[in-house]
Write a structure and sequence with these properties.
By secondary structure, the chain is an all-beta fold. The chain contains no helices and eleven strands. The strands form two sheets. Strands 2, 4, 5, 6, 9, 10 and 11 form a seven-stranded mixed beta sheet that branches. It has a four-stranded antiparallel beta sheet with strand order 1-3-8-7, with no helix packed on it.
Length: 116
């Protein structure tokens, strides 16, 4: 079964850091993880989905203005994984964080709560 599984969410105080991981598994042998763009998006309570960061197959990155300078997306193709390093977290960063492959495959989400 093809799936993306996020991990690393949790409760953190304002100003703190978290690192989210997302691992792909169950894909066919023809699936080449390294050739796909990868996405992190989030949904805050009561709000719509916000695209937070992208990384292309070539390693080019994109960040939403709301996280630029604080979040870093990276990928490890050997591990079929994508990461989101989140620093200087604020309560506005609270939400469910989803990883995705840019052909429309999404993970189930990881909860991040920033609160004192």
């Amino acid at each position: 079964q093809e799936q993306l599984v996020e991990s690393g969410g949790g409760l953190v105080q304002p100003g703190g850091s978290l690192r989210l991981s997302c691992a792909a598994s169950g894909f066919s042998a023809r699936f080449t993880f390294s050739t796909y763009g990868l996405i992190w998006a989030r949904q805050a309570p009561g709000k719509g989905l916000e695209r937070v960061a992208d990384i292309t197959s070539g390693g080019t990155t994109y960040y939403a203005d709301s996280v630029k300078g604080r979040f870093t997306i990276s990928r490890d193709n050997a591990k079929n994984s994508v990461y989101l390093q989140m620093n200087k977290l604020t309560p506005d960063d609270t939400g469910i964080y989803f990883c995705a492959i840019d052909v429309g495959i999404w993970g189930q989400g990881a909860a991040v709560t920033v609160s004192s």
